[in-house]
Amino acid sequence: MTHYQSDLLRVLNDRGYIHQLTDADGLDALACKVIVPGYIGFDATAPSLHVGSLVQIMMLRRMQQTGHKPIVVMGGGTTKVGDPSGKDESRKMLSAADIDANIDSIKRIFEQFLTFGDGPTDAIMVNNADWLDALNYVDMLRNIGPHFTINRMLTFESVKIRLDREQPLTFLEFNYMILQAYDFLELSRRNDCRLQLGGSDQWGNIINGIELTRRIDSQQLFGLTTPLIATADGSKMGKTANGAVWLNADQLSPYDYWQFWRNTQDADVGRFLRLFTDIDLDEIQRLEALEGSEINLAKKTLADAATTMAHGEKAAQHAAQTAENLFEQGQAGGDLPVFEVSYDQISILDALVGIGFCASKGEAKRLVSGGGARLDGEVVSDMGTMISATDADVKISAGKKKHGLIRKVG
Where, in this chain's numbering, is L-tyrosine bound (predicted)? Predict the structure, then answer.
């Protein structure tokens, strides 16, 4: 077992964040002596990040907790290009206005997890558009281009996957790895940044930045990646039947966020408590050792802690209370998703699709025929059932875990 001297690497190692390190001894020694500024980049392809980005956000939090300086790099420039890593096809091109709006929305997430300010270990947020947008293309090619060979670029996983599947990889996207390497060089110069963190799919991009900075500035930089976070059944973390688990409350309610964590598989509870909460490791060891129905206590602890971190204590308590009312007392709670209708009646099929429990009427029909749809706790067996939308909310359920309200408006 690896024994690190620095709090930074010890915490990251003990909590399960480390997959690869470029120079473990060098970074460990540096982190013992000085405050290490480290960064992770986030492209702004949507108004919110989802739970798949949470490991990266938590690593920045761990940096700050161990006395180092997190740098959040928003990809105002790189989002215009698109990262081909892990993608089968090109990303939709976003306008500059859309990218700026997404960055403004995403900023709110980081304020929940990090302390921003002017202090030595306070987090800062920068936008790589500040330097990428100002680049003169020919100068960029002359200064940076000679340090990259096409031969080596073709060996990168993100490129090979696309070519092997005969999916088009545009010249625009092919430039992404150069721009990300250039980010590291710029951050080293502007912010004395010495460390880049990222998911395992970013290893090649991180190495590019380290090598580019060594060649041009003779500066030593470090890279660290996390393992791919998959659930115990092998599925990708954060992908559910209902789509992405968003971190912004206006895209996913705190109640649904709480439920996502509450529904964690038994085998994942301990690992997720280490990665996604600040709970003491000894307490996590106690919680993950619980057996039978008692493991539900660990799941609720995980849900409470993760939701408090993302949405605040009040929202977490409200979500937990709603769940308790609904499942343990049979009452409808105030944090359930609501489908508002402006007419007196709606069919059960339209209601299931409208509230987002089913993707289509065909799926809704299968749910009803299988006995999985309920209104106010009563199973609905007739596909032609009409719901009377009156002044009182009607509770609609799909299976055991999805519950919402039909509400008359106007």
Answer: 39, 176, 180
Crossing angle (nearest 10°) for helices 24-33 and 7-14:
130
On whether the CB atoms of residues 387 and 351 are closer than 8 A, the answer is yes
User: Is 17 marked within a binding site?
Assistant: no
Q: Which of 76-90, 274-288, 335-349, 377-391 has the lowest mean pLDDT?
A: 76-90
Query: Is residue 343 a known part of a binding site?
Result: no
Please state, in angstroms and rounded to a whole number, the distance separating the CA atoms of residues 162 and 89.
8
Ordered alpha helix ranges (H), 218-347? 254-262, 269-276, 281-288, 295-311, 313-328
Name, in order, each residue with C-beta under 8 angstroms of 302's C-beta and a sequence gap of 6 or more. 261, 262, 264, 269, 272, 273, 276, 277
Rounded to 5°, the CA angle 359-365-368 comes to 110
Return the amino acid letter for 360. S
User: Which tokens sit at 346?
Assistant: 């709606």
DSSP per-residue codes, 334-374: TTS-EEEESSSEEEHHHHHHHTTS-SSHHHHHHHHHTT-EE
How is residue 126 written in tokens?
């920068």
Establish whether 317 is an annotated binding residue: no
pLDDT in tens, 115-147: 999 999 999 999 999 999 998 878 888 888 889
Q: Give me the domains of the chain, ranges plus CATH numbers.
A: 7-226 (3.40.50.620), 253-328 (1.10.240.10), 338-408 (3.10.290.10)
Q: What are phi and psi of 243, to 5 degrees?
A: 105, -165
| Nearest-angstrom CA–CA distance, 37 and 47 | 27
Q: Residue 195 has what pLDDT?
A: 98
Are 26 and 231 in contact by the 8 Å Cβ rule? The answer is no
Global pTM exceeds 0.70? yes
- R_g of the chain computed on alpha carbons: 24
| Class of residue 42 by CB neighbours under 10 A (exposed 0-12, middle 13-18, buried 19+) | buried
